[in-house]
Amino acid sequence: MFSDSPLQISQFLLSTLSTRMYVYHEDRVPHDCPVLVVSNHRSVIDAPLLMGAIKRPIRFACHHYMGQVPVMREIVNQLGCFPLEAPEHRQKGFFEKAIQLLQHRQVVGVFPEGAKPMVQVTPPNKMGDFQRGFAHLALRAPVKNLAVLPVAIASLEETINSGVPLRLLSFFDRSEPLFDSPGWHPMVIYRRTNVLIGRPRWISPQMREQYQGKQAKSVVADLSNYCHQEIADLLRQGCY
User: Fold this and answer.
1) Four-way CATH pick for 6-238: 3.40.50.970, 3.20.20.30, 3.90.550.10, 3.40.1130.10
2) Distance CA 143, CA 146 (A)
3) What is the phi/psi pair of residue 140, to 5°?
4) Domain locations in the chain?
5) DSSP string for the chain
6) Per-residue pLDDT tens digits for 64-105
7) For the segment 44-67, what is each residue's pLDDT rounded down to a tens digit?
8) How far apart are CA 199 and CA 25, in angstroms?
9) Which residue among 153, 154, 201, 235 is buried most deeply as judged by most CB within 10 Å?
10) Angle subtended at Cα 228 by Cα 98 and Cα 17, rounded to the nearest 5 degrees
C-alpha cells in the first residue's frame, strides 16, 4: 500500500473503514491551478476523505504531534501531509512549505479550527472559530490563479472510540495545552458522510494590493469570514 500515491492510499483507507461518501458540487473544484482547500475538522480520516472527494492529492498541514508519534508519523508522510513545526518556527515553516507547494501548482489543505475539535468531540453540524493563518498565506503567496476552496464535511453516521490517552501525546508535543488533561483522544470514524464543495474564492491582484497597511486586517477578515460562512451554510445543508 505504501508505494501507492496519496490519492490511492486515501481511497484504500476509506474502503477499509467502509466509509460511504456522497460528494456534492464537484463542478466547483478548480482544475489545473494551485488550490488552497479549507475545511472543518473532526476526524482523523478528514484528510483522506477530502482527497477522495476532490480526486486530487492534497498536501495537508497537520498538527505537530502527528509528525512525532510512531506509526502515525509514517501514515501522514505517506499521505503527503506536512506536520507543523515546533511553536517557535511554526508560522514561518508553514508559510515557506505551503508557498513552495502552491508555486508548483499543488493543492494545499488546512483545517483552521486547529486541534480543539479533534480532542473535544463536537456535533457534526457545529464548527469553531477559524484561525486566520490560511488567509494570510493566500494573500501573501506570490502565486497566480490561486483559488481558496471551502469544503464542508457533514457526517450523517459515525462511531466514536477512544484512541490514545491525551497525556501520552503530551510527551510528543508539550506545546499543546489540550494534551495536558485526563481522558482519551477520541477517534471519530464516519460511516456515512456528505462532502459539500463550496464556491471558490479567487485571489485577485486587487486583494493582494489591499493586503498592506491598515487595509490588511480587513481583507484577511473578509477572506476568513467568507470561508467560515460558506462552510457553515453547507453544513446546514449536509447534516440532515
Assistant:
1) 3.40.1130.10
2) 6
3) -90, -30
4) 6-238
5) -TTS-HHHHHHHHHHHTT-EEEEE-GGGS--SS-EEEEE---STTHHHHHHHHHTS-EEEEE-GGGGTSTTHHHHHHHTT-EE---GGGHHHHHHHHHHHHHHTT-EEEE-TTTTHHHHS---TT---PPPSHHHHHHHHS--TT-EEEEEEEEEEEEEEEEEEEHHHHTTT-TT-GGGSSSSEEEEEEEEEEEEEE---EE--HHHHHHSSGGGHHHHHHHHHHHHHHHHHHHHHHH--
6) 666 666 667 777 777 888 777 666 667 788 889 999 999 999
7) 899 999 999 999 999 988 776 666
8) 9
9) 153
10) 70
Grid-cell match 503567496, residue found? 141
C-alpha cell recorded at residue 66: 502527528
